[in-house]
Automatic annotation (TrEMBL), chain A:
Belongs to the TmoD/XamoD family. The lineage of its organism: Bacteria, Bacillati, Actinomycetota, Actinomycetes, Micrococcales. Coiled coil: none annotated. This is Monooxygenase.
Length: 96, 513
């Protein structure tokens, strides 16, 4: 069942809350082909190969400044590897 | 909430991380480096360049404390609201709290032990990046210990089983399963600990441990537990990252590290998996309102995400899936049933209660375990229902043989044969030792000199070290009081629950015995 890093599923679980709705919407809008699943208290977003959260798209929906560190308050779990986490974006993908 | 800084940032996240975390390190000039960091060579791991360690979170002290404080504020707001509104009465049933008793007795003390060992790593790892990540995790684990105790202390006012969890963790038979697991990791070297806890536990198995408890809380009206769970899990995602960074770092530093790391994965997957046996029965039997079956959770969080995702990634380094993983997969249909059936018969000596699953619960079990429940386990409950009708709910009167490694009673069955108990015997220095499975036997025979020292609760009772020779003597030594354990139906918790929900006058709630 060998798969490649570019297609293998990655995902993130986010706490379902009022404040996180904008984050979830931003991720949906940024990642084509992602799947959003609602679980008890959680929203699970999965995508083939790569999942990106951008500051710009969250701020657009939130209507205020948002620093990517704030994502720590939303994230419950993830699978994949955090490849990048800087001022502008967070990228979850596999390495190999 | 105003979290985003008002003033424009002078440094980017990367620069701040470099300046405030990495740059605070210095090269010792008065003493040898090996005298400053004396513990990172004896395990045979070779590190050539500590600066290659990555921390994707790029944490600095100021950002760490800011967000952790915000997490705590949110949690304590929920705790206050729950306590002020008599939230405990909105649980599905008092029996739900058995899951939380098990959590407080079995898991919370491990958080404290994790705090201790990550503090040790924060001192003893050579690189400033991993030292700081370990320091943050050490403080996180202390926060988890405290928030779990605070959260569950609300229930201690009204329900049994919560009042002596710390002493019980050190003494009671089923709690020696999680305790001995963690003691095994604490007594390993720093790199093995990182693979044991940072990687195998936090990355491989954490979702199987935490998400079921938290989703169970969410489905059963336990808002505070759900909130502390998510609050803790948000740290957990950082811990998972540390675990994953640790393993990639070790594998990339030197090829000679690969076989050492592989053996640790083989060992710690099985050690951790055996601890999740307690989670399996909790999911399938202890929750009045079911969330998902153990089988489903195992398929999603382990088979799909770890075997289908992570291990594909690690194959690049020459790492294969853990040894004995096929036994774990094969057990998913039978594990929870075998464990709960055992706990059911021994709960007179536990700080939680058990009961026969009712008709609805059995229907759910039958639908979720189509290959095994009706065939193998329903007959046991049918037989017990007849016993109860005849006035004889039974408890096991003897003491079970425990596995020398995982310390679970010998309740597991032979691979492929769910009606034959599995028992493996090894001889070391002329003495016989029993293990529950090929996985545990392999672990024992790899390091017999370690596992022959195990503090096995049943052996200790027979040796006279647990308060005395009778069951009441041992229960007194465990600090187990009337109403903490045994049968749920008719228990103190059950009677109070009925009374509190039937009575118009609620002014005395919590003052009953």
């Amino acid at each position: 069942m060998s798969t490649t890093a570019s297609t293998r599923t990655v995902g993130v679980d986010i706490q379902e809350s009022e404040a996180n709705r904008s984050v979830v919407e931003a991720i949906e809008a940024t990642n084509d082909g992602c799947t959003v699943q609602h679980m008890p208290g959680l929203v699970r977003i999965t995508a083939p190969g790569r999942l990106v959260v951008t500051r710009e798209s969250v701020e657009e929906r939130l209507g205020r400044e948002w620093e990517t560190h704030e994502f720590q308050l939303a994230i419950v779990s993830y699978f994949g590897h955090i490849k990048e986490w800087d001022d502008d974006e967070i990228v979850i993908a596999w390495d190999h | 909430m105003t979290i985003a800084p008002k003033a424009p940032r002078k440094l980017t996240m990367k620069q701040r991380y470099e300046a405030l975390t990495r740059d605070l390190d210095w090269e010792p000039s008065y003493v040898d480096r090996s005298d400053v960091f004396p513990h990172t060579e004896f395990e045979g791991i070779k590190i050539h360049d500590w600066s290659k360690w990555e921390d994707p979170f790029r944490l600095t002290v100021d950002s760490y404390t800011k967000y952790q404080a915000e997490k705590d504020k949110r949690l304590y707001a929920v705790l206050d609201g729950f306590a002020q509104s008599q939230g405990h009465l909105s649980l599905t049933e008092a029996s739900y709290l058995n899951a939380m008793k098990l959590f407080l007795q079995g898991v919370t003390p491990l958080e404290y032990q994790a705090h201790r060992n990550f503090a040790y790593l924060a001192r003893h790892l050579d690189g400033p990046g991993p030292r700081f990540a370990a320091l943050c995790q050490s403080i996180d684990e202390m926060r988890h210990t405290q928030t779990e105790i605070h959260t569950l202390s609300n229930y201690n006012k009204y329900y049994g089983g919560f009042h002596n969890y710390l002493e019980q963790h050190d003494r009671v038979w089923y709690l020696s399963v999680p305790k001995s697991f963690f003691d095994d990791a604490l007594s390993a070297g720093p790199f093995e600990f990182l693979i044991a806890i940072g990687f195998s536990f936090e990355y491989l198995l954490t979702n199987l441990l935490f998400v079921p408890f938290m989703s169970g809380a969410s489905f059963n009206g336990d808002l505070p537990t759900m909130t502390f769970g998510f609050s803790a899990q948000s740290d957990e995602s950082r811990h998972m990252t540390l675990g994953l960074e640790a393993i990639k770092f070790l594998l990339e530093q030197d090829e000679a590290n690969v076989p050492i790391v592989q053996a640790w994965i083989d060992k710690w997957f099985w050690r951790g998996y055996r601890v999740t046996a307690l989670v399996a029965q909790m999911l399938d039997y202890m929750l009045p309102r079911k969330v998902m079956s153990w089988k489903e959770a195992f398929e999603l969080y382990f088979e799909e995400q770890m075997l289908g995702g992570l291990f594909q990634d690690l194959a690049f380094y020459g790492i294969r899936p853990p040894m004995h993983v096929d036994d774990a997969i094969a057990e998913k249909e039978i594990l929870s049933h075998q464990v709960y059936w055992t706990l059911y018969q021994f709960s007179h000596a536990a700080a939680f209660t058990t009961t026969v699953p009712d008709a609805d619960a059995q229907k759910w079990l039958s639908e979720n375990y189509t290959e095994t429940f009706d065939q193998l386990y329903k007959p046991l409950w049918d037989k017990e229902a007849k016993n109860i009708e005849a006035g004889g709910r039974h408890f096991a009167r003897g003491l079970p043989q425990l596995c020398q490694v995982c310390q679970v009673p010998m309740l597991f069955t032979e691979p492929g044969d769910p009606t034959t108990l599995c028992q493996r015997e090894s001889v070391y220095n002329g003495e016989k030792f029993q293990t529950c499975s090929d996985g545990c036997q392999w672990i024992f025979e790899r390091e017999p000199e370690k596992y022959v020292q195990a503090w096995l609760p049943v052996h200790q009772i027979y040796q006279g070290n647990c308060g005395g020779p009778t069951v009441p003597d041992v229960l007194t030594w465990y600090g187990i009081q009337d109403g903490d354990g045994g049968e749920y139906k008719g228990s103190v918790d059950d009677r109070n629950w009925q009374k509190w929900h039937d009575a118009a006058d609620h002014s005395n709630i919590g003052s009953e015995g």
